[in-house]
Amino acid sequence: QVQLKESGPGLVKPSQTLSLTCTVTGGSITSRKGLEYIGGIAYSGSTYYSPSFKSRTSISRDTSKNQFSLQLSSVTTEDTAVYYCARDTVRGSHAPFRGCLSVSWTENQPS
């Protein structure tokens, strides 16, 4: 089983450089395609989809339940993956997904 462990300074002060190291065990960092962005939903409710997934992806949210959902249609064996939800914390005028509440990713398995 592939496992990842992050390590870093824990606390970085303003103007300092953050360095985060991820150590992979049980696999190789060159044997997989890596994380691939599927899409996101912003605080406003507007959605963004990666062009490669747009035709068969839908992301929605239910604010009353504090939940969001990803639907991927017409799945094939190529979609076999570990899927993740994550909060986008990037800020700034040049951040492509600025204001996203959450995004989903897939880590493709070796072919």
Structure commentary:
With 111 residues, the chain is mostly beta strands. It has a domain at 32-108: Immunoglobulins (Immunoglobulin-like), CATH 2.60.40. The protein has strands at residues 3-7, 21-25, 35-42, 47-49, 57-62, 67-72, 81-86, 100-108. The strands form three sheets. It has a four-stranded antiparallel sheet, with no helix packed on it. Strand 5 (57-62) and strand 6 form a beta hairpin. The protein is extended and about 40 Å long.
Secondary structure: elements and pairs:
Elements: E1 3-7, E2 21-25, E3 35-42, E4 47-49, E5 57-62, E6 67-72, E7 81-86, E8 100-108
Antiparallel strand pairs: 1-2, 3-4, 3-8, 5-6, 7-8
Domain Ig-like: 1-85
Protein name: Ig-like domain-containing protein
InterPro entries: Ig-like_dom, Ig-like_dom_sf, Ig-like_fold, Ig_sub, Ig_V-set, IgHV
Poorly predicted runs of 5 or more residues: 91-107
Which CATH class of the domain at 32-108 is shown? Mainly Beta
> In the CATH hierarchy, what is the superfamily of the domain at 32-108?
Immunoglobulins
Oligomer: single chain
| Total helical segments | 0
Strand order of the largest sheet: 4-3-8-7
- Structural class, please? mainly beta
Most strands sheet: 4 strands, antiparallel
Domain Ig-like: 1-85
Protein name: Ig-like domain-containing protein
Keywords: Adaptive immunity, Immunity, Immunoglobulin
InterPro entries: Ig-like_dom, Ig-like_dom_sf, Ig-like_fold, Ig_sub, Ig_V-set, IgHV
